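Work Package 4 report. The design task specified in the project plan requires that, given a folded chain encoded as structure tokens, an amino acid be chosen for each position. We show below one input record used in the internal validation round.
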């Protein structure tokens, strides 16, 4: 017997010895004698007579709470004591007095229930399962240490569930069943994690978007928004950035999307940009980027001004790149030192980045490459770092970045999301094909495949090419050993793999093997089913021979002519066929001409080969047809050749003349030689040179020593080794005293004598400028030319439109900005004052800025290149 049970029975005996009264005494007497069975019978009889007898319930509860007795039942004991306590409160004072005489008062009921409670706790801990703790909690909801019991129960339930590899629904059930559990936070964490993984296990972009829509409060929202952003914007499509900012306006990445969108073309068409918290600043930046900047210096500090002279960036930089001194900035970012480190700014001074770098390359689409010592950093112009420690980077197709790291290339989005990690020896865009190279092997894929696989499970490549040859943007030949294939733009096989040579053509693609030539075009069953032993090809025509006959194909019109005896291709002009001794010429432009057996065929072309003509020669004459099959002219000429697209030189008995394509005579048959040069025909007769001006129709008789050149309304030629100008009637406009004459504009020329240049107005017979030692072209636009000229005083600038825009009094002049309205750097030294004056002068001669520098300062701002 346990020591506790001994004490409990001793208590009963004590009651028997000293408090025996009434019927209950009899029950207690039997118990005291050790006759538990008789005592139990007496107690049961008492309870049968009165089931609400609190004393009998108490003694019976105490007995069956003894675990050494065969009647032990702790749960029944609890039921009895609970009933006894309830009934004790209902009995009369006399009955209370009777029980008191037996030694039973209210404290006995509470003490016994506490004993049962403690034994129930022991039992729950001993069994240590959910059922035992649930049972205890149901029996003793007011237990002082109930949190311990709850935690024990919840711990078993939680860890049992985890050991069974619970799903998210299991954790959801746990949270619902145990809403106040200490393990609720852990359960919720697992619930959200497993729910997220289950709903997105296919790793498809659409699943992430749907999950965020269905479960907007998920703790993984930031992670999912990042995944959606990376994948949805991987294509660098304006609509994708715009859609992201619209769909997830509260996301931190919405700002990033709008910032990236800003640097794409037509970005401001996106309505989502209006949500940007700094939209006014974006617009200001957009406008600022369009400004051209010119480097200036004050007090040893560098800054930038606009072409009009307005300060855009105050002189605050202690260092700028040397290139900034030699050329203007056009919409690029600016870098230099304003503090201890290099800093990168927008053109209006907004700080983008600070760090160690020495040069900046703009790759396009907002991507900048900051070159450091050995490696580079890729930075987006909105300020975020795309990737660090990059060895090389190139923007491909204005949408993806080819990045080299550890000697290998990978393909990344503009935000740095890996389309492919860096494991390829090269990545190239060839037409519409993306080419990946690794270990000497080549894989070919398309943009659609890359995007499709990225949005699902990741890109997979098949390296099955040894080499390739791009035919055009949408067609590629693949090589693998002796085998070749032809791929279309969707990577479909136009010609499957085989031991053959592939010959691609936009209209007809075919192979050559031991059997001959075989065509694969599905639209031409007439040739697809045959093998051809011989093939002739020009730009427009195909001639094919079987054992029986020839076939002629027009690539442009797709016409097919079969059952021919022979075929002769004449380049892109046409094709000659013979059938039953009847010759026929098929022009490229669908006309036909029957050729007699006594005709000789010749093709002539204009010097630029833009136009070709057919000459049919018989014993009596020559007939000319154009490449459309239209008759031009005929005659008994010995030779016919093209001067240009519409004029011909004809020869008869050694004399040459000129006729047009309609046979109309422009120059008679009286010249020894006729040659074309732009709009002049050179005429040689009796060893003298003349000219025929095609633009004006003027004929200058052959009386000169050298070829003529048109200058304005006049002609340049030589006499006695010196140059002069004549008009179309051979009248002298200038004297023949010059070593060189250059056209300046419609009314003036530069003419050089032995020692100096003059600016002449020939028609007005005026000298506009003289005593010029030399001239040098500075800049030309579509309509205007600028030169620097030097006189005995100094350098000046002249324009063929505006005349002298800067007088000749400066020490040096250089072109700084080659714009339509250019900017020139003009130097003037003041030796007495030990100053250099640097002027920025525009194409109109306006000084937009003038600064004086000491020699040591001037060395910092002046460009020697």
């Amino acid at each position: 017997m346990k020591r506790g049970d001994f004490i409990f029975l001793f208590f009963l005996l004590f009651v028997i010895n000293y408090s025996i009264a009434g019927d209950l005494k009899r029950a207690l007497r039997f118990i005291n004698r050790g006759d538990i069975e008789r005592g139990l019978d007496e107690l049961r009889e008492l309870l049968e007579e009165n089931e609400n007898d609190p004393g009998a319930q108490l003694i019976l509860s105490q007995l069956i709470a003894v675990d050494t007795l065969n009647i032990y039942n702790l749960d029944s004991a609890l039921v009895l004591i609970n009933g006894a306590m309830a009934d004790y409160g209902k009995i009369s004072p006399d009955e209370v007095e009777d029980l008191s005489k037996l030694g039973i008062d209210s404290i006995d009921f509470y003490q016994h229930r506490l004993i049962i409670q403690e034994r129930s706790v022991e039992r729950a801990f001993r069994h240590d399962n959910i059922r035992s703790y649930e049972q205890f909690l149901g029996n003793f909801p007011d237990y002082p240490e109930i949190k311990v019991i709850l935690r024990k129960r919840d711990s078993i339930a939680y860890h049992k569930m985890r050991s069974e590899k619970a799903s998210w629904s299991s954790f959801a059930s746990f949270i619902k069943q145990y809403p106040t559990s200490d393990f609720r936070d852990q359960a919720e964490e697992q619930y959200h994690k497993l729910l997220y993984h289950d709903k997105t296990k296919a790793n498809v972009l659409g699943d992430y978007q749907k999950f965020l829509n269905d479960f907007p409060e998920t703790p993984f929202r930031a992670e999912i928004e990042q995944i959606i952003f990376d994948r949805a914007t991987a294509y660098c499509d304006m609509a994708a950035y715009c859609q992201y900012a619209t769909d997830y306006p509260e996301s931190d990445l919405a700002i990033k999307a709008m910032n990236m969108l800003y640097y794409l073309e037509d970005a401001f068409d996106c309505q989502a940009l209006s949500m940007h918290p700094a939209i006014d600043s974006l617009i200001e930046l957009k406008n600022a980027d369009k400004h051209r900047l010119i480097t200036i210096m004050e007090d040893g500090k560098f800054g930038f001004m606009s072409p009009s002279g307005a300060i855009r960036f105050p002189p605050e930089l202690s260092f700028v790149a040397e290139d900034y001194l030699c050329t203007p900035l056009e919409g690029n970012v600016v870098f230099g030192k304003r503090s201890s480190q290099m800093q990168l700014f927008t053109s209006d001074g907004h700080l983008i980045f600070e760090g160690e770098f020495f040069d900046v390359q703009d790759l396009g689409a907002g991507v900048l490459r900051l070159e450091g010592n050995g490696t580079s950093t890729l930075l987006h112009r909105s300020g975020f770092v795309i990737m660090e420690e990059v060895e090389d980077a190139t923007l491909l197709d204005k949408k993806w970045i080819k990045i080299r790291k550890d000697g290998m290339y990978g393909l990344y989005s503009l935000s740095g999301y890996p389309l492919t990690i860096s494991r390829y020896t090269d990545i190239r865009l060839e037409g519409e094909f993306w080419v990946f190279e690794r270990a000497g092997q080549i894989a070919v894929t398309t943009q659609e495949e890359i995007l499709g696989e990225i949005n699902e499970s990741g890109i997979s490549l098949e390296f099955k090419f040894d080499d390739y040859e791009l035919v055009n943007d949408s067609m590629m030949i693949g090589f693998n050993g002796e085998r070749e294939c032809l791929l279309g733009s969707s990577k479909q096989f136009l010609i499957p793999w085989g031991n053959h040579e592939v010959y691609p053509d936009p209209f007809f693609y075919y192979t050559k093997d031991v059997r001959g030539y075989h065509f694969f075009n599905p639209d031409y069953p007439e040739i697809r089913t045959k093998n051809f032993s011989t093939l002739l090809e020009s730009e427009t025509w195909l001639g094919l021979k079987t054992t029986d006959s020839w076939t002629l194909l027009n690539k442009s019109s797709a016409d097919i002519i079969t059952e021919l005896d022979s075929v002769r291709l004449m380049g892109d002009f046409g094709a000659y066929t013979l059938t039953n001794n009847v010759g026929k010429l098929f022009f490229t432009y669908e006309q036909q001409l029957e050729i007699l057996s006594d005709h000789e065929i010749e093709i002539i072309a204009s010097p630029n080969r833009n136009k070709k003509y057919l000459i049919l020669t018989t014993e009596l004459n020559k007939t000319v047809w154009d490449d459309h099959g239209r008759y031009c002219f005929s005659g008994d000429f010995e030779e016919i050749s093209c001067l240009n697209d519409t004029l011909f030189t004809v020869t008869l008995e050694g004399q040459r003349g000129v006729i047009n394509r309609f046979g109309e005579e422009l120059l008679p048959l009286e010249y020894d030689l006729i040659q074309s040069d732009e709009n002049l025909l050179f005429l040689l007769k009796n060893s003298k040179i003349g000219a025929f001006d095609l633009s004006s129709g003027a004929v200058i008789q052959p009386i000169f020593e050298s070829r003529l050149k048109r200058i304005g309304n006049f002609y340049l030629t030589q006499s006695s080794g010196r140059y002069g100008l004549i008009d179309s009637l051979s009248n002298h406009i200038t004297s023949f005293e010059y070593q060189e004459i250059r056209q300046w504009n419609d009314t003036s020329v530069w003419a050089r004598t032995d020692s100096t240049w003059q600016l002449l107005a020939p028609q007005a017979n005026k000298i506009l400028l003289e005593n010029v030692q030399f001239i040098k072209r500075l800049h030309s636009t579509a309509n205007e030319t600028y030169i620097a000229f030097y006189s005995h005083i100094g350098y000046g600038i002249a324009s063929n439109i505006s005349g002298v825009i800067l007088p000749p009094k400066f020490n040096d002049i250089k072109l700084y900005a080659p714009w339509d309205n250019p900017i020139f750097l003009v130097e003037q030294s003041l030796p007495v004052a030990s100053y250099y004056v640097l002027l920025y002068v525009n194409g109109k001669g306006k000084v937009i800025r003038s600064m004086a520098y000491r020699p040591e300062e001037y060395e910092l701002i002046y460009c020697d290149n």
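The chain has 20 helices and 62 strands. Validation will be extended to a larger panel in the next phase.
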